[in-house]
Write a structure and sequence with these properties.
Helix content is about 55%, strand content about 0%. By secondary structure, it is mainly α. It has a two-stranded antiparallel sheet with strand order 1-2.
């Protein structure tokens, strides 16, 4: 009986894992399809990039060149920023999802739904409003740090068949980073849980320094995530678990009978009832 239950539990776990992988595959295929749809719309994407740049100046947002410029004189810092952009985004998301799936399933489901919804909305915006990043928009004056200093995850935009480089808004780097930070804060106690916010803050700085996003790209991603999290149900609190080991029955004395007094010197083993095993 135990062997059968174990086999069913393992089969159910593998089925859940297969569903999760299928969801990732669907989102990846949708992203690839979006890349083909925007092919040939470089002029529109560049014009939209210039419009966003002017809008930021109208809104008095800080100039991105003021952030990137001082770092260009330090090759090591620029390479660190490029490496963070290239190698931290996806692995950090996967590690967070796997940990939550194993330890906090309810929070995993909420994070998975938030990431899927954010990615789906972003794909629609990427197709409907192609937007060139500042590193490809000459008006901004920003440098493509990945191409100049390395490492770079992108090839020439006209021949790149793997990624959609005209999909700057919203920034999924910023949106995903904030989503996993919020999820980890929800399952962490104490003041140290606020340290998880360092990841989205560093990510927001990195995407600007590397010339991959405007400030507004991150702002739009944050607004979309806030709306999505407000709609999704909050996970139920985790139930307390009993320590491992055999459970001992609780011994409870029987109620006294009216009119009789028991001699405290006489043991009352006969008046003892046993409760069935349980939590008490």
């Amino acid at each position: 009986m135990d062997v059968t239950r174990t086999a069913h539990a393992r089969l159910a776990a593998w089925q859940r894992a297969a569903r999760e992988l299928a969801l990732v595959a669907v989102l990846f295929l949708a992203y690839k399809a979006g890349r083909q749809v925007v092919a040939g719309h470089a002029e529109v994407a560049l014009a939209n990039g210039e419009w966003v740049w002017r809008l930021e100046r109208l809104l008095r947002l800080p100039d991105e060149t003021l952030v990137q410029g001082p770092l260009l004189a330090h090759d090591l810092l620029v390479r660190v920023a490029n490496s963070y952009y290239a190698y931290v985004h996806f692995p950090a998301t996967v590690l967070c999802l796997v940990w939550l799936w194993l330890r906090r399933p309810a929070h995993y489901v909420r994070l998975r739904r938030a990431l899927a919804a954010l990615t789906a909305v972003a794909l629609v915006l990427h197709v409907c409003v192609p937007l060139a990043p500042p590193r490809l928009t000459a008006l901004t004056g920003l440098v493509d740090t990945g191409t100049r200093f390395g490492p770079s995850v992108y090839g020439p935009p006209d021949t790149d068949q793997l990624s959609n480089q005209y999909a700057a808004m919203p920034s999924l780097h910023v949106g995903w980073a904030l989503a996993i930070a919020v999820a980890l804060m929800a399952v962490t106690t104490g003041r140290r849980r606020w340290l998880w916010l360092l990841h989205p803050l560093v990510t927001a700085l990195v995407v600007v320094v590397t010339g991959n996003h405007y400030w507004l790209d991150g702002v739009v991603a944050v607004v979309l995530l806030v709306v999505i999290l407000a709609v999704l149900p909050t996970p139920a609190p985790d139930l307390p678990t009993l320590p491992p080991g055999p459970r001992r029955p609780h011994v409870v004395p029987a109620p006294r009978r009216a009119g009789r007094r028991r001699n405290p010197k006489v043991p009352a083993a006969a008046d003892v009832r046993l409760r069935p095993p349980g939590r008490g």
